[in-house]
């Protein structure tokens, strides 16, 4: 799983962010979006990547 921190214009932010986004693949090849609060254990949510929207799509 690769964690990324991006702004709306695509630039990487400082490493002090508390919430991060990643795309993970399960054992069957399904891809999932993962949003996590990295400052707390077990503070994360997932959903199928196909159901997500970019920031510009949700505006």
Summarize the structure.
The chain is mainly β and 59 residues long.
Topology summary:
Elements: E1 2-4, E2 19-25, E3 31-37, E4 44-48, H1 55-58
Provide an overview of this structure.
With 59 residues, the protein is mainly beta. It has a domain of 34 residues. Helices cover 7% and strands 37% of the residues. Strand 2 and strand 3 form a beta hairpin. The protein is flat. The mean pLDDT is 78.
| Cα-based radius of gyration, to the nearest Å | 12 Å
Class from secondary-structure proportions: mainly beta
| Number of separate strands | 4
State the distance separating the first and last CA atoms.
Answer: 27 Å
What portion of the residues fall into strands of 2 or more residues? 35-45%
Q: How confident is the prediction overall: mean pLDDT?
A: 78
Q: Give the ordered list of helices and strands.
A: EEEEH
Helix share of residues?
Answer: under 10%
Largest sheet: 4 strands, antiparallel
Global shape: flat
> How are strands sequenced across the largest beta sheet?
1-2-3-4
Low-confidence stretches: none
The number of helical runs is 1
Features:
single chain, 59 residues, mainly beta, four-stranded antiparallel beta sheet, 1 helix, 4 strands, flat
């Amino acid at each position: 799983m690769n964690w990324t921190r991006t702004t709306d214009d695509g630039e990487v932010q400082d490493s002090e962010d508390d919430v991060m986004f990643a795309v993970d693949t399960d054992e069957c090849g399904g891809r999932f979006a993962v949003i996590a609060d990295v400052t707390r254990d077990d503070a994360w949510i997932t959903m199928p990547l196909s159901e997500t929207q970019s920031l510009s799509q949700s505006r």
